[in-house]
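FORM 7B: Structural annotation worksheet

SECTION A. Query
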Amino acid sequence: MVALETLEEILTYARSHDYAGYDYSDGMSAPIRRYLPVDNRWLNLAIQETIKRSPVNIRPLLLVPRRRSFKGCALFASAHIGMYELTNDESELRQAKSLIDWLLDNHSSDPFGWGHNHDIQWPEGKVPRNTPNIISNTYVLRSIIEYTRHDAFTASKRVGERTVECILDELLVDEAFTRLKYDPLASTDAFVINANALGGALLVELSDWLDDGELRQLGESILDYVASRQHHTGGWSYMDPAEASHLSMDNHHNGFIIESFLRYQSATGSKRYQDTLKRSLDFYKSELFESDGAPNWDESNDFPRDIHAAAQGIITFSLAGDIHFAETILSWTREHLFNGSNAFYFRKGRFMTNRTILMRWCQAWMAYALSQYCLCASGIGDFTE
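SECTION B. Predicted structure
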């Protein structure tokens, strides 16, 4: 199977680099920023966004360090677990455990969890390195839950309990709607919708793992909020309210939301969000992808065609049981964003391809996507049953 061979190549590439590389918004790690006499948010943004948006990779020139990403290592761990389930190769499980051990050795303690392994500057303020956020916590906990299905370890349940404590104490906003802040520093004037979807689904998964029925109820309340924000076309804006972000109904964040509802359905057997899922999958396939599998940027723009959107499409359609379209996206991605050997590129623009290789954004997401595709195609991870 070409997908399995490609997955093996990506994981070999990642291991050879110790899972460390450049990341999407790591420009604040450039030494030039530390040497400047002022710490100004607009100057920080200029440095960060110039590095992120450059059509060629200027990080080596600016001495941006290669680092492990917390979310990236969680995704690689899940991909290794998938490889173990596909091949029964015990070394894959050992590799996953080594990544999980590293994550457990490098979490934030107060509050508990994981964020990004570098500072990020937003217009409204700076988020320090490893400020826990709900999305990173989701993928770390998911990798741990997946690992314990094969090899339980004593610290795992306590990690789940401490993550729940962080969510309840630092992120939960229970007013007119039950919602989650993206991270403890986020305001309550606007909410990231896909983060709520991922967090709600995580709580439902944790409810079974930790034998706590109240977590399912809380997760459903959050998912109810997400469902209530679905646009009549079937998609979701990035933020609620929509005008709080420059992003519209972009591709991979809508994929996050649909995946979350699919995971809820798989975990519970409930058809609670069946209509929501149907309308969202129709919108996702018809508006955010071309028939040849090319990912559109959002509902109004074709370009740039981003590797993360392609990876998330492969994941979402695999879990939805549409293996044929997941394979169509994979074929397009291999043709347009693959180096032909062991790595995937960042983005394809209208006139040129940005061949930057980002360890999390490109490699980890595609490794995870390929593992989910292979599992579902083989029937091992079929979410439609």
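SECTION C. Observations
The first helix runs from residue 2 to 16. Residues 1-22+66-88+95-105+298-385 form one domain.

SECTION D. Sign-off
Analyst initials: ____
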